[in-house]
Design goal:
Blueprint (H helix, E strand, L loop, with lengths): L2 E4 L1 H14 L4 H16 L10 H10 L9 E5 L3 E5 L5 H16 L4 E9 L6 H8 L4 E7 L21 E5 L6 E5 L6 H10 L8 E2 L5 E2 L12 E2 L4 H21 L14 E8 L7 H16 L15 H13 L1 E4 H13 L6
Parallel strand pairs: 3-4
Antiparallel strand pairs: 1-12, 2-3, 4-11, 5-6, 5-11, 6-7, 8-9, 8-10
Helix pairs in contact: 1-2, 1-10, 2-4
């Protein structure tokens, strides 16, 4: 697929412009565009600008709300519960995280639960907002209208990829963990289906429970499934973690599978932890920095590459993108071209 590099400011301005032209509130459009561009900059292309056509369609059909405010259902200071009313997930999460960071100055832990949130994108893009301030951040989200992962030992899709992310500050770059509790994500499988390719490993089950790497099994009737993290032998571990995500994101928010939701919407769990209220921030960062050094300096097989920490590659790609621009597909470039041409950031 043909791609081109576009400088960050230009592509951000263009993406904001096309979202605003679809009626999305100005501030929300900017936040959504920033989140999509950040995902591309860190290599999470399945959650980057390629989502724009989907977002624009949802704005047109009413799947994503164009303006408004979250409903504060409950607020106890150290915790709060919002109903997002299908507002853009990126904007809702940025509002929630900034609120939590402000409150964490006077509280050891701040926790939030959010229901009926439109797609929030790459979880990893939210973590640095907290880690830059020396805070630990946990983010998880899932959609009760999607089922693509069978419980370990089963063949019927009950759960979905159920991602969870952790941001951990150190004296160096933060550790940024972002993973699905399934072997691979729905977005990755959709990419294979669209491109007519297959994943390298047998990470899927057909509807009779046979391992395969053919993504077409997800479209059969009844459908096949994505394996839980750990695969055929150790998938009980991913299944267990997937249940934890369901509890935190759907059961706490009351936006779960029991209600039979059909439209896209997410339950979200957020938590900010302030190390100052425990052994102390300096102690925490010293411990984590020492652990990072031990991991990165540990022995590797002959000729092997050094150990890479979670989030390290994403942060390297982000720095590269600031200099070389964001890699954008031809179809997205075509969509954004009118706004790129008129952008004050565009080169002439």
């Amino acid at each position: 697929m043909e791609k081109a590099n576009v400088d960050v400011a230009t592509i951000l301005s263009a993406a904001t412009g096309v979202l605003k032209s679809s009626g999305l509130d100005d501030a929300m459009a900017l936040t959504v565009a920033e989140t999509l561009v950040q995902a591309d900059m860190t290599g999470h292309h399945t959650h980057g600008l390629q989502l724009l056509p989907y977002y624009l369609n949802e704005l047109e059909t009413g799947g994503m709300a164009k303006s408004g405010n979250v409903q504060v259902v409950r607020d106890d200071g150290a915790s709060f519960f919002w109903c997002a009313k299908r507002l853009p997930g990126a904007w809702v999460l940025r509002q929630a995280i900034e609120t939590m960071i402000e409150r964490s100055a006077k509280r050891p832990v701040v926790t939030a639960s959010i229901s009926e949130c439109f797609h929030i994108g790459s979880l990893q893009t939210y973590l640095s907002t907290a880690t830059d301030r020396g805070l630990v951040c946990i983010v998880s989200a899932t959609d009760p209208s999607v089922a693509s992962v069978a419980p370990f030992g089963g063949t019927e899709p009950i759960l979905t990829s159920n991602p969870v992310a952790f941001g951990i500050p150190t004296s160096y770059e933060p550790i940024l963990v972002d993973l699905c509790t399934s072997v691979t994500s729905n977005s990755a499988m959709m990419g294979h289906l669209n491109e007519g390719t297959r994943p390298k490993s047998e990470c899927l089950l057909d509807n009779e429970g046979n391992a395969t790497n053919d993504p077409q099994v997800l479209k059969t009737d009844p459908p096949g499934t994505i394996m839980p993290l750990g695969g055929e032998d150790f998938g009980y571990k991913g299944f267990g973690l997937g249940l934890v995500v369901e509890a935190l994101t759907l059961a706490l928010s009351g936006y779960g599978r029991n209600a039979g939701h059909r439209a896209y919407g997410e339950g979200v769990f957020l938590q900010i932890i302030n190390p100052d209220y425990f052994a102390g921030r300096l102690v925490f960062e010293r411990e984590m920095s020492n652990l990072v050094e031990r991991c990165k300096n540990s022995r590797v097989p002959a000729g092997g590459a050094p150990v890479r920490m979670p989030g390290q590659r994403a942060q390297e790609l982000h720095r590269e993108a600031r200099n070389s621009g964001v890699r954008v597909t031809a179809s997205i470039l075509s969509l954004l071209e009118p706004w790129i041409s008129s952008s004050p950031c565009a080169s002439h």
